[in-house]
């Protein structure tokens, strides 16, 4: 293979459609602050995500920070997972929130509800922050139960999971808040961007002020906020991609099915005991060891194919004082994400699998 194949490739929508959106921006001269494309994109996402209380923001990390601020977690303590992208925990640290790691489930690779309850029984925990890693939904009924039993909110990092379902229901029906990334690497993107969904209308109304410096509709600031608004240009890209999302999802589902057909006798895949659908954002495989992972990664790279070793907690040097639980250590050292994008071909997937099986 001569063409470089990366673990993911941003999708660019039809240029003519995008230019039409840009032309409307030039005509309106409305660049940000709840413009018409922002409003249209918001309406589109409410339908796609099946969520009534939804805010677009400028990126997924700010979505997390606003959610943490909304639940007044500064100088408090939360439980979260060590197996996640850095933003889950860096956003906590940025907001001066203390956090502890609980171990993950060996099948879903998500935060384990049983381990979480073991820690909740000891007290002094103010929130739970699970992650729907690689689009796999957590055991959401279990976390809703813990939320009610111990009186703590559940804030989901759903960066990978906007189209995932749990027992035939949208993931956004569970928990208190979900934060989604619309970064360029994501299936649905706005170049940079994020989404926050809310269970409670009062949280939604307060968050609308928080993302606009804390101002209400009259410009009165009753509490300090931040500028987390999404611009019209970013909304234009997101809106155009959203119009093609069904086709993009179907393409990726077929590629994942082809990967599994090729590799199911060689590797373990992420799975859950409960009914679910997973957003086709990534294709992770579990290797037998880190040695095997590195060997496969090297052989692919020699053919100009670049897989990624996600997510190694040892890369988070600022967390050196926190111990990484045992199951997470095993999973994190052996999970490799293979290339997946809407531009990938069946021929390329078959070639990738051939190289892996020969490694």
Low-pLDDT segments? none
Q: Major sheet: order of its strands?
A: 1-9-8-5
What is the count of β-strands? Answer: 12
Please tell me how large the radius of gyration is: 21 Å
Strand content is 5-15%
Descriptive report:
It contains twelve helices and twelve strands. Helix 1 packs antiparallel against helix 8 (232-242), helix 2 (36-49) packs parallel to helix 8 and helix 3 (60-70) crosses helix 4 (86-94). The strands form four sheets. A four-stranded mixed sheet has the order 1-9-8-5. A three-stranded parallel sheet has the order 3-2-4, covered by helices on one side. The model has no long low-confidence stretch (mean pLDDT 96). Helix content is 39%, strand content 12%. It has 359 residues and is of the alpha/beta class.
């Amino acid at each position: 293979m001569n063409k470089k194949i990366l673990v993911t490739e941003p999708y660019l929508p039809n240029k003519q459609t995008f230019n039409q959106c840009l032309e409307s921006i030039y005509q309106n001269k409305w660049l940000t602050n709840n413009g018409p494309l922002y409003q249209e994109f918001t309406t589109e996402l409410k339908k796609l995500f099946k969520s009534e209380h939804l805010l677009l923001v400028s990126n997924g990390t700010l979505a997390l920070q606003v959610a943490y601020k909304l639940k007044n977690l500064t100088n408090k303590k939360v439980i979260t997972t060590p197996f996640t992208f850095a933003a889950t925990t860096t956003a906590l640290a940025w907001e001066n929130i203390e956090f502890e790691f609980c171990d993950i489930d060996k099948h879903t690779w998500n935060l384990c509800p049983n381990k979480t309850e073991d820690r909740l029984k000891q007290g002094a925990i103010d929130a739970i922050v699970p992650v729907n890693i690689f689009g796999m939904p957590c055991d959401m009924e279990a976390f809703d139960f813990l939320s009610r039993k111990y009186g703590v909110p559940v804030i989901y990092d759903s960066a990978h999971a906007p189209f995932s379902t749990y027992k035939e229901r949208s993931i956004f029906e569970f928990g208190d808040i979900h934060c989604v990334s619309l970064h360029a690497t994501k299936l649905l993107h706005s170049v940079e961007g994020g989404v926050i969904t809310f269970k409670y209308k009062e949280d939604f109304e307060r968050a609308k002020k928080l993302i606009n410096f804390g101002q209400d509709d009259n410009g009165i600031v009753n509490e300090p906020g931040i500028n987390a608004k999404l611009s019209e240009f970013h909304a234009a890209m997101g809106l155009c991609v959203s119009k093609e999302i069904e086709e993009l999802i179907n393409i990726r589902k077929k590629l994942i099915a082809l990967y599994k057909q090729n590799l199911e006798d060689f590797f373990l895949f992420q799975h859950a005991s409960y009914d679910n659908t997973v957003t086709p954002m990534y294709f992770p495989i579990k290797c037998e060891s880190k040695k095997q992972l590195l060997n496969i990664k090297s052989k692919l790279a020699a053919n100009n194919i670049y897989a990624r070793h996600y997510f190694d907690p040892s890369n988070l040097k600022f967390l050196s004082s926190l111990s990484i639980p045992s199951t997470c250590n095993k999973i994190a050292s052996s999970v490799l994400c293979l290339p997946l994008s809407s531009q990938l071909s069946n021929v390329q997937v078959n070639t990738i699998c051939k190289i892996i099986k020969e490694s």
